[in-house]
Input
Amino acid sequence: MKTPLICCTLLIAALQTTQAQKPDTAQLLVHYKFSHVRDTTNREHPYTENMVLIVGKNAGAYKSYDKQLQDALFKKQVQEQLANSADGHVNIQRRSSGSGAEYYQFPNEKKLVRKEPLLFNNYLLTEALPAINWKISGDTATFGGLHCQKATAHFKGRDYTAWFSPDLPLHLGPWKLNGLPGVIVEAYDSKKEVDFKFDGIEKAVISTKKDDHPANPASDNQGRMAVMIGMDDTDGDPNIIQIPTKAIKTNEKEFANLQEAMRKDPNAFAQSMVNAQSAGQSGSRPAPKIDVRIGPPLVINNPIELPEKK
Output
């Protein structure tokens, strides 16, 4: 259970302070129970995930809270095994938890940056922050001690209801939702097929202890580097809002081509990535052979973004 937060004048003033956007320091964490009916033939079992919106002074980052916790645990386990291993060998079975997609909103620049993972790499896609034609009503409600107001809009093929808090005066929200005079703390479409359900709000705690956030990659006790496949490239506090620096910039068309190549032949796609990385390292050994096993494709007949009816 997340700690409820009652707004105060000092917090509101801090949110309104003008400061450079990159990197930005988190002020609040808004938690959501995200639910999405991906398969309309199986409505009883929607996709669910714990998500978090990291609210800064000028920017926001929406990402998987499940993955954030799992990554932190995995890094700690790797560090502990490396410290106690005579030969640098690490044997940890890592659970796959949470999606890797992240959304970075920059309202002042009207910019949205999306991070998408694909096998061993992360990719960055930049687009204009969507302009949503919200209609604000006089209806009010309280979420976690926050006074909120209701708004509705049609967006990406769905009719959304959103609850936003004017006491948190940043035009941010979960996923791509934005543009209201306050942070969106809950939103859902008219069919409840997509639901960003409020699950708590708390002040961000930024650690100043270096030991709390070991660097990635990690160095073992013989000077070698332990590469953590699929991990985020942020070395510091996860509550610092910063676009991943090691992700590969691309566009929608190129990324779609990469996804299609992976679907057609996962092993060939993975091997080409490993070969390219090995070729770029001076004095490196020949690239290892890769055997990738990908499960059956997910049934998604109801994507979060629907085509508009003509």
Residues 9-251 form one domain. The longest helix spans residues 65-84. The CA atoms of residues 120 and 148 lie 41 Å apart. Residues 3-21, 210-231 have pLDDT under 50 and may be disordered.
